[in-house]
Amino acid sequence: MPHDHEAILQKVRQDLPTDELLCDLADLFKIFGDTTRIKILYALLESEMCVCAIADLLGMTQSAISHQLRILKDADLVGKRREGKTIYYHLSDEHVRTIVAQGFEHLIEEQMPNP
Amino acid sequence: MPHDHEAILQKVRQDLPTDELLCDLADLFKIFGDTTRIKILYALLESEMCVCAIADLLGMTQSAISHQLRILKDADLVGKRREGKTIYYHLSDEHVRTIVAQGFEHLIEEQMPNP
DNA sequence: CGTTCATATGAATCGCTGTTCATATATTAG
DNA sequence: CTAATATATGAACAGCGATTCATATGAACG
């Protein structure tokens, strides 16, 4: 007979958020989980930028960048501002900075040789 | 003639981390960007758990969970402990808690109606 | 040793997603 | 209005990755 773990299961089930919330959370991190998007976000940490500047910076197509910016915008991670023909993108809030920073810290500690 | 943005580009290029680091960062977030893995991590925030308990909790195959646990382990996000036939998984550090919490905060503010 | 329970692993499949290409929209200049 | 620049978008394609299925490993127990 298989072993029992109803006790733990009940406890965990109680505190587990709804499926929908957990999916939303995964979707958010999915956005950070792409090299191109991470680079865009990192660049925007420094200063607002127009699309072609980002494309130039990353050595990628304007189209590719535009597609990614759309995803970032849909997730409310960036916002835009028009100035003539040019559109400047910027971070919409400071959460990006904190989230990225936390990721960084984990990477650093991970690469440390054990003391 | 296309418009100029060398000034900003130079500044940003200076402070942009190496490609390798940015990829590692994206890879880290990629791990959080899957519903199954987020759920596993969330469960482990509460208490350590054996594989079949997690499978039971999420209503998924033992095999599927095992595959995901391997990914989490390779990324040093979880560790394991053997007790007879059973193997208990636990979070390897508290960064998971902080990273997830930050993601949460963004979600909450995002869903707020503007004041 | 052989059986049972718990977990791991490898191959195959199938859906998702990032890029490309072609084209559309928008703004400014002439 | 036409041309040029800047960005957006849609369809198509390719590669990756999560699950499934079958099977292997590993431990305890008689």
Question: Which chains have the largest interface?
Answer: A-B, 55 and 55 residues
Would you count the extended β strands of chain A for me?
3
Anisotropy-based shape of chain A = elongated
Mean pLDDT of chain A: 93
Order of helices and strands of chain A: HHHEHHEEH
Share of helix among residues of chain A? 55-70%
Termini separation of chain A comes to 43 Å
Low-confidence stretches of chain A: none
Separate helix tally of chain A: 6
Largest sheet of chain A: 3 strands, antiparallel
Cα-atom radius of gyration of chain A: 19 Å
Give the helix/strand class of chain A: alpha+beta
Q: Give the strand order of the largest sheet of chain A, numbering strands 1, 2, ... along the chain.
A: 1-3-2
Oligomeric state, counting identical vs distinct chains: homodimer
Strand content of chain A: 5-15%
Walk me through the topology:
The structure is a homodimer of 115-residue chains.
Chain A: H1 6-15, H2 19-32, H3 35-46, E1 49-50, H4 51-58, H5 62-74, E2 78-83, E3 86-91, H6 95-111
Antiparallel strand pairs in A: 1-3, 2-3
The first copy, chain A, binds a DNA duplex (30 and 30 nucleotides) through residues 1-3, 34, 36, 50-52, 60-70, 82, 84-87.
Keywords summarizing the entry:
homodimer, 115 residues, alpha+beta, 3-stranded antiparallel β-sheet, 12% strand, elongated, DNA-binding
Describe the structure.
Two copies of one chain form a homodimer. With 115 residues, the first copy, chain A, is an alpha+beta fold. Chain A has six helices and three strands; from the N terminus they run H-H-H-E-H-H-E-E-H. Chain A has helices spanning 6-15, 19-32, 35-46, 51-58, 62-74, 95-111; strands at residues 49-50, 78-83, 86-91. In chain A, strands 1-3-2 form a three-stranded antiparallel beta sheet. In chain A, a hairpin with a 2-residue loop joins strand 2 and strand 3 (86-91). In chain A, helix 4 crosses helix 5. Chain A is elongated, with a radius of gyration of 19 Å. Chain A starts with 5 loop residues before the first helix and ends with a helix. The relative contact order of chain A is 0.11. The mean pLDDT of chain A is 93. Chains A and B meet through helix 1, helix 2, helix 3, strand 1 and helix 4 of A and helix 1, helix 2, helix 3, strand 1 and helix 4 of B. The first copy, chain A, binds a DNA duplex (30 and 30 nucleotides) through residues 1-3, 34, 36, 50-52, 60-70, 82, 84-87.
